């Protein structure tokens, strides 16, 4: 049996095991919807596409790297693939030649919309399997969790 100090170190006393199970389910939904809509994209490439498609264009490549918490060269490779697939357009910033500007194509926006629709459908299916009381409680917890997980502005 685990002692309290060990329990505190691994976080099980605050529900991290349950949260990890939910995270795995959400990652499965995220991954399966991307691969079903387009097997041509990795999850990282799709995440970059979402940032580009959901921001007010154009988006600076550095912002995509920051939002993904990835090094710029990795993001450049991901965006190269998006450009190759004609999901994103790329151009040099005429006001700052060191910056690369990105904008989604119509096809890129459509892929993000299709994946989001499919994710909503899958989540709705899961939520429908829950009792109304559990579904209501889950929605309240999801909202509080999303708020707590949001990065804080300095």
- What is the terminal separation in angstroms? 42 Å
Low-confidence segments:
1-8
Strand segment count: 3
Q: What is the CATH architecture descriptor? A: Orthogonal Bundle
The CATH first-level class comes to Mainly Alpha
The CATH homologous superfamily is named Winged helix-like DNA-binding domain superfamily/Winged helix DNA-binding domain
Approximate shape: elongated
For the largest beta-sheet, the strand count, sense and barrel status come to: 3 strands, antiparallel
InterPro entries: HTH_MarR-typ (IPR000835), MarR/SlyA-like (IPR039422), Tscrpt_reg_MarR-type_CS (IPR023187), WH-like_DNA-bd_sf (IPR036388), WH_DNA-bd_sf (IPR036390)
Domain HTH marR-type: 16-147
Protein name: MarR family transcriptional regulator
Keywords: DNA-binding, Transcription, Transcription regulation
Short description, anyone?
This protein has 154 residues and is mostly helical. Helices cover 67% and strands 11% of the residues.
């Amino acid at each position: 049996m685990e002692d309290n100090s060990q329990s505190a170190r691994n976080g099980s006393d605050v529900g991290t095991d349950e949260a990890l199970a939910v995270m795995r389910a959400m990652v499965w939904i995220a991954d399966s919807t991307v691969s079903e809509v387009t097997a041509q994209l990795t999850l990282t490439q799709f995440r970059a596409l979402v940032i580009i498609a959901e921001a007010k264009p154009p988006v600076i490549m550095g912002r995509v790297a920051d939002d993904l918490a990835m090094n710029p060269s990795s993001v450049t490779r991901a965006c190269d693939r998006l450009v190759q697939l004609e999901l994103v357009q790329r151009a040099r910033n005429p006001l700052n030649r060191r910056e690369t500007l990105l904008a989604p194509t119509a096809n890129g926006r459509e892929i993000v919309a299709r994946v989001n629709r499919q994710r909503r459908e899958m989540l709705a299916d899961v939520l429908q399997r829950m009792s109304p009381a559990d579904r209501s409680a889950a929605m309240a917890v999801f909202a509080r969790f999303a708020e707590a997980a949001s990065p804080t502005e300095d």
